[in-house]
C-alpha cells in the first residue's frame, strides 16, 4: 500500500530524473563534485574574498545584504516591535555574502573563468539540479 507521500515522492524523483538531471547534463553541469579539491580551490581565492570583505571588490551579495540591513534598520526605527538587524555576526556575513560569492567564483573557475555575472546566471539556473 503506497501512501500519498510515497506517490508524491515517486513523481518528484521521476520528474527530476527525466527533466532536471537530463537538462543539467545537456548544459554541462557537473554530476559529481570533487570535495577533496574544494578546500584548495577556496584557499586559492582567499585574496578575492578578502577584497570583497574589505570592499575593494564590488559584490552583489554584500550590497544586497547591507541594503536589506538598512531597510530593516529603517523599519526598526519606525517600529519598536522590529528587533532584527543583519548581519548579526561574522557567521551571518559568511553565510549571506561569502558563501554565495565563493560559489560564483567556483562556477567561474569550473567554466574556464567566465564572468561572474554569467556564473550568477548559471548558479540560478542550476539551483534545481
TrEMBL record:
InterPro entries in the cross-refs: RTC4, RTC4_C
Q: What does this protein do?
A: May be involved in a process influencing telomere capping.
In this protein, which residues make up the domain named Restriction of telomere capping protein 4 C-terminal? 74-128
Lineage runs: Eukaryota, Fungi, Fungi incertae sedis, Mucoromycota, Glomeromycotina
Identification of the protein by name? Restriction of telomere capping protein 4
Where is the major localization of this protein?
cytoplasm
Keyword vocabulary terms for this entry: Cytoplasm, Nucleus
What is its subcellular localisation? Cytoplasm; Nucleus
Q: Return the similarity comment.
A: Belongs to the RTC4 family.
| TM regions (residue ranges) | none
The entry's cellular-component GO terms read: cytoplasm; nucleus
